[in-house]
Amino acid sequence: MTPTRTILIETNRLFREGLKHLLADTRFAVEAEFSTIEQAVGGVGSSGLVITSEAGNLQRIRSAYPEICIVVLANDLVVDALRDAMTAGVDGYLMKDVSPEALIQSLELVMMGEKVFPTNLASMLLNLDTTPSPMKSVRGLSPREQDILQALVSGSSNKVIAFKLGITEATVKVHLKTLLRKIDVNNRTQAAIWAMNNGFTAESAVSTRSFHAVSA
């Protein structure tokens, strides 16, 4: 299996060493490590996987390295921190007490282009204070754009969306670009949050896959 350039950002040295040891015999062997995101910016590189426990400044590292995959290992499941991480475009959000097997599986899914988030992601985000009226919010979106929004809630990749809707990936990209502009968001993760806050759920017949959820 092709090795994946892996960067670790973790303030706790003991946890950092333990994680390095865990990943040593996998494709995710840690190539570089930092205590903070501030230290990491400038030393991450343009591709690979970043595993970090820092909840703050995620947007900074995402902006500096748009092509990398980012997985957050959090101490606690806090709604605001999860929302901020998703807005920053992270690819996974896991708890530090996740089992080693589940962690490796999650990292593999991320490198395949999937999103890995907590099992109760949708309910957590739908419980936020501001929930616009679905009928009003989706006005102006075509049926196809609504289908794609639904698929985003389910964590589907462009390839999966294209297969399910019987269209090409290029067409999906065109629809997605227009959709992001219409609902005034910057990326597909923000679009998924918008969709969940506007009445879309992962149970629709259009979607067959949910955000991958991994428990300990």
TrEMBL record:
<dbReference type="InterPro" id="IPR001789">
    <property type="entry name" value="Sig_transdc_resp-reg_receiver"/>
</dbReference>
<protein>
    <recommendedName>
        <fullName>DNA-binding response regulator</fullName>
    </recommendedName>
</protein>
<dbReference type="InterPro" id="IPR011006">
    <property type="entry name" value="CheY-like_superfamily"/>
</dbReference>
<dbReference type="InterPro" id="IPR000792">
    <property type="entry name" value="Tscrpt_reg_LuxR_C"/>
</dbReference>
<feature type="domain" description="HTH luxR-type">
    <location>
        <begin position="134"/>
        <end position="199"/>
    </location>
</feature>
<keyword id="KW-0238">DNA-binding</keyword>
<dbReference type="InterPro" id="IPR039420">
    <property type="entry name" value="WalR-like"/>
</dbReference>
<feature type="domain" description="Response regulatory">
    <location>
        <begin position="5"/>
        <end position="111"/>
    </location>
</feature>
<dbReference type="GO" id="GO:0006355">
    <property type="term" value="P:regulation of DNA-templated transcription"/>
</dbReference>
<dbReference type="GO" id="GO:0000160">
    <property type="term" value="P:phosphorelay signal transduction system"/>
</dbReference>
<dbReference type="GO" id="GO:0003677">
    <property type="term" value="F:DNA binding"/>
</dbReference>
<dbReference type="InterPro" id="IPR016032">
    <property type="entry name" value="Sig_transdc_resp-reg_C-effctor"/>
</dbReference>
<dbReference type="Pfam" id="PF00196">
    <property type="entry name" value="GerE"/>
</dbReference>
